[in-house]
Amino acid sequence: MLSSNYTNRLFGRTRGRSKKKINLKNYHETVEKFKFQNFDEKFDYILDIGTGYGETSIFLAKKFTDKIVVSCEKYIDGNIVLLKNIEKNKIRNIRLHNGNVYNVLENTNKKYFKLVWIFFPDPWPKNRHSKRRLITSDFLLKLHKILKDNSEIHIATDSTIYVRFILNSIYTCKDYFLWLNQSNMNLNIKDYFNIETKYYKKAINSQRKPSLFILRKL
């Protein structure tokens, strides 16, 4: 079982602004069916952080059918959509962690993950909220410890403020990761992956071009 002893607070909403009524009892019962519990050394894992409405987790589960996708998201409305699509598509290789990703990172000292996806994390654009940003040099080093050799981290954001913040974090960790797409980070995400999430579409509709960072563990 995952321990809840972590010091990194999780920020952001757990429900949508509409406050549409949901049956929380049924929700938690369904989450329990797909809940991430423990690592199994027989499998390789993919970590999908901040999955929103679950489009990335579904995409990864279909693309890597031989791996377990650990979907980390506390947003209840998004998880409901993800759970419906898991059952609709009869997907068996997604495990949901309805909470803080640090629970997952701090409960293993082994290298289980082949890939980490972090698509459109909250940029927390106000200066007073900058400490809430997930992607820091310290966080990248935590990921480095649980990644298998030559594994990759894929990060997408449409926030120019967050881009600068991520660039600084990558530079700080330059001895630990190779930035694979340094010369073409501003290519459209769809030049790499055939996927359109809700937040990707929101960025394009607002005429913001997302940046994609692909890092490989050294």
Write the CATH architecture name: 3-Layer(aba) Sandwich
**What's the CATH H-level homologous superfamily?**
Vaccinia Virus protein VP39
Number of strands: 7
Mean pLDDT: 88
Tally of domains = 1
What does this molecule look like?
The structure is a single chain. The chain has 218 residues and is α/β, with parallel strands linked by helices. The chain has helices at residues 24-33, 55-63, 76-88, 101-105, 137-146, 160-172, 198-205; strands at 45-49, 68-72, 94-97, 113-119, 147-157, 177-179, 211-217. The protein has one domain (50-217): Vaccinia Virus protein VP39 (Rossmann fold, 3-Layer(aba) Sandwich). The protein is 31% helix and 19% strand. Strands 3-2-1-4-5-7-6 form a seven-stranded mixed sheet, sandwiched between helices. Helix 2 (55-63) links the parallel strand 1 and strand 2.
